[in-house]
Write a structure and sequence with these properties.
Blueprint: H1 3-26, E1 31-38, E2 41-43, E3 46-50, E4 55-60, E5 66-70, E6 75-79, E7 85-89, E8 95-100, E9 113-119
Parallel strand pairs: 1-4, 3-9
Antiparallel strand pairs: 1-2, 4-7, 5-6, 8-9
Bound molecules: copper (II) ion.
């Protein structure tokens, strides 16, 4: 391979690799928040996020299977003991929104909820 061809190849490689990388870097890094679901509370029970900023909620349930449901944003996930369930979304409106457990987990299930507080 001559020098010109080599330069062309490395320029092409840089272009191929560089574009997705630049796009990744341009996006704000999602804020990761750990949430533990136990009988019969979410910890924390109040989650603070910013409008327009992607967020990843990382759930664990040490005791029994749980669910997380945030109806105002149309997102939910199962939470199974022994693994972490990640739920990524971008809050597109500000306010206080109730989330709840939607997998029956025992006598306190009906009262198992919390709030997502989205600031401008
Ligand atoms: Cu429950």
């Amino acid at each position: 391979m001559n020098a010109n061809r080599r330069a062309l190849m490395s320029a092409a490689t840089a272009l191929l690799l560089g574009r997705p990388m630049a796009r990744l870097l341009a996006q704000p890094k999602p804020a990761a928040i750990d949430v533990v679901a136990r009988k019969f509370v979410f910890i924390p029970g109040e989650i603070h996020v910013k409008k327009g900023q992607p967020v990843v909620l990382q759930f664990t349930a040490p005791e029994v299977p749980m669910g997380f449901n945030l109806p105002d944003f149309g997102v939910r996930t199962d939470i199974v003991p022994g693994k972490t369930s990640a739920l990524k979304f971008t809050p597109d409106k500000a306010g206080t929104f109730t989330f709840l457990c939607d997998v029956f987990c025992g006598s306190g299930h009906e009262d198992m909820n919390g709030v997502l507080i989205v600031s401008e």
